[in-house]
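Progress narrative, work stream C.
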Amino acid sequence: MKSGDDIRRLLEESDRLWNSGDRAGFLALWNEAVPGDTTLEMPVGTEPRQGFDACRRAVWDEFQPTTRRHTKHLIVCGNEAAVLVENVISAPSGTSSVLSIGTYRFTEDGSCFERGYVEFDGASGATDDR
C-alpha cells in the first residue's frame, strides 16, 4: 500500500512531468506507481476508462498538448487523495482556465481508481441534480 508521502510525491511529480511535456517520464512514473488496474471516470457521471492505455496514454494524447495543470490544493488521507487543479487550456481563440477536482484511491493490489469532477463550458456530461 502506498504511504501518504508516496501519493503526494506521485501526484506532484505527475504534474511536473505533464507540464514539462515529458510523455515518456509521465507514463513510466504511472506505470511503476500503479502496477495493478487503472480506472478513470472523467468527468464523473460518464463511462469510466479502463486500463493503463485508456487512462494514461490516451488522456495524455488528448489533453496534454493544450493543457497545463496547476495544483492549487492537495489533500492526502491514508491511501486516498483529493486535488484541486486549475487547468489552463490554450486554443487558437485564446487561453481559458477550468477548475477540476480529482480524487484518487490506491488499493493493496496496486490498482488506482481516479475520478475527475470537471465542467467544460458548463457541461460536464453528468446529470446535474441540483
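Work stream C, second folded protein:
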Amino acid sequence: MFLGLSREHRLSSTEMDEVLAKDRVTTTDLPTAASHPFYRRLNQLLREHGFDDFVEAQCAGFYAATMGRPGLPPGIYFRLLLIGYFEGIDSERGITWRAADSLALRDFLGLDLHDVPPDHSTISRTRRLIVVEEVVADKGYHSRTTVHDLETLEIRTYISEPDRGPQSWIESTRRT
C-alpha cells in the first residue's frame, strides 16, 4: 500500500502532478496586504522627487563597480533607516526583523513575498561603508544634545546659532 492506495489504484507521476496542480497556489495568487497609507504616500513622494537616483549618485563613491557581490542599494538602505526611525527601532537586528515580518514594510522596501529582506549584518556593513564627515543644518532644527552627540562622534558641524551669547555645550548637555 502506498498512501492508502493499492498497487492498481496508484496514480502515475503525470496524474499525480495534475492532482497536485489543482491544489497548488502560487505566491502571485496570494492576496497582498494593503500598504500602510503613510509608507505608500512616502514612497510616492520619494519616487516623485527621484530619491533613489539621487542617493545612488551621492553614494556612488562608496560602492565598488566590479568587486564582490552587489551591495545593498542605497534607496533600500535609507528606507530601512526610515523604518527604524518611524517605528522607534534602534537596532539593525530589530529593523531587519520588522521588515521581514510586515507585508506593508516589504512593499515600502520594494520586496516581493519571496524576496528576503537584507540581513542585519548587511545593514551594518553598509552603515560603516557610508561615512558621514560633516553636517550642515539651519538654526533652530537641532538641540544641544544633538550637537553634543555629533561632537562625540567627531562629526564636523556647520550649524548657525541664534545669538544666545557664550554657551557651554558640555554643561548644557549634562542638564538636558
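Residues 134-175 form one domain. No further action is required on this item.
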